[in-house]
């Protein structure tokens, strides 16, 4: 769970990487996620290494049809960082998904501090839209699946080659942080894909986005976050740019078509009962050509809310401060907001899900998760929804 996480003596973060971060993790923002991961220093070198693993079993049924029992090695992420010199840091994350079927450099940046409010970052960056995109490590969450809105509406763990500035300011119980980057962008695949709908995650399938921008114009991503240690953190973020190839060798092919994303995120821990709540909602607008059918929506929105309640915190089976949680995730996505031009009826293509869960944390770095999913998904015509339900049981741990 974000902000309830602590580092024990056996998994130390390079102290030089934490120079600007207070010891109390309640005083961090989501933007600090790349700095607050546990890692081990390699002897007396400035290099630190760490990572996490996610694996699970699941049995799901959709309208009475099931693929049976499935074991999944979903991802193995490896972190490497180095304090290159005074106020110059390198951080990276390499992820192996589905047993190595997909390998990606999710994050690899050089951070240069000129002032706590002015830090330069360049390399492969995680675009700070919402909170999950940056703070996505499996061991921090009580659910085996990542949020639908953060992975099937927004492109989950969306990273691009880019550069920009970030910074933070503290004053008593208040923290303010900002990030602003120019980076690689989306391309025509967001409306030309096998999903046959407007689908931003399709852009992740194009590895050339790390080498060239389809439109020739960079994507802007900016975020402002405010946190009070007694109230919680509120984040406001925007990501937008031209996605289509509107010209070739000076010849105009099409008008410039924009994709814009606006997101709000909030998290808090209720005092006394220690209930942790985190939520994120996003709204998307895409300039879809008029020649496309209405199944390609120009507006989308969705989000999720997680509620996690510790019920037991004590020594269990020899683990000090072990925690048993009950939790629930509510989520909704509408991929095509609007009405049919011919009939005036609502366009379908939406999904909602409820996922109760039980989790056990022998330590803050390891979590066992049992989830039950009940989900309804409608097609574009609003026909009776497909119903999916079933169980997931998994483990996720830092190492």
UniProtKB/TrEMBL annotation:
SUPFAM superfamilies from the UniProt entry: Porins
InterPro entries: Porin_dom_sf
Protein name: Porin
Protein source organism: Flavobacterium humi
């Amino acid at each position: 769970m974000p902000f309830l996480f602590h580092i024990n003596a056996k998994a130390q973060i390079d102290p030089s990487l934490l120079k600007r971060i207070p010891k109390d993790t309640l005083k961090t923002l989501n933007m600090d996620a790349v700095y607050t991961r546990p890692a081990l220093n390699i002897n007396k070198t400035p290099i630190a290494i760490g990572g996490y693993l996610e694996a699970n079993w699941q049995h799901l049924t959709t309208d009475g049809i099931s693929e049976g029992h499935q074991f999944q090695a979903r991802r193995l992420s490896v972190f490497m960082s180095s304090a290159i010199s005074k106020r110059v840091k390198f951080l990276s994350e390499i992820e192996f998904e589905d047993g190595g079927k997909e390998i990606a450099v999710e994050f690899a940046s050089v951070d240069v501090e000129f002032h706590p409010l002015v830090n330069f970052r360049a390399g492969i960056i995680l675009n700070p839209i919402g909170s999950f995109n940056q703070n996505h490590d499996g061991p921090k969450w009580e659910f085996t699946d990542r949020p639908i809105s953060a992975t099937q509406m927004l492109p989950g763990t969306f990273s691009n080659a880019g550069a920009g500035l970030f910074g933070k300011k503290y004053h008593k119980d208040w923290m303010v942080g900002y990030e602003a980057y120019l980076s690689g962008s989306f391309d025509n695949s967001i409306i030309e894909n096998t999903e046959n709908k407007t689908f931003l995650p399709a852009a992740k399938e194009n590895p050339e986005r790390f080498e060239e921008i389809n439109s020739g114009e960079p994507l802007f991503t900016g975020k402002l976050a405010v946190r009070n240690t007694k109230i919680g953190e509120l984040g406001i973020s925007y990501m937008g740019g031209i996605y289509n190839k509107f010209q070739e060798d000076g010849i105009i092919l099409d008008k410039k078509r924009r994709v814009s994303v606006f997101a709000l995120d909030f998290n808090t821990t209720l005092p006394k009962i220690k209930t942790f709540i985190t939520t994120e909602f996003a709204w998307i607008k895409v300039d879809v050509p008029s020649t496309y059918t209405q199944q390609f929506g120009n507006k989308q929105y969705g989000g999720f809310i997680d509620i996690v309640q510790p019920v037991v915190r004590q020594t269990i089976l020899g683990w000090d401060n072990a925690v048993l949680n009950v939790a629930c995730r509510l989520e909704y996505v509408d991929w095509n907001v609007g009405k049919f031009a011919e009939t005036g009826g609502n366009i379908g293509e939406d999904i909602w899900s409820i996922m109760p869960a039980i989790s056990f944390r022998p330590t803050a770095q390891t979590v066992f998760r049992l989830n039950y999913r009940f989900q309804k998904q409608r097609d574009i015509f609003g026909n009776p929804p497909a119903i999916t339900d079933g169980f997931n049981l998994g483990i996720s741990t830092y190492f």
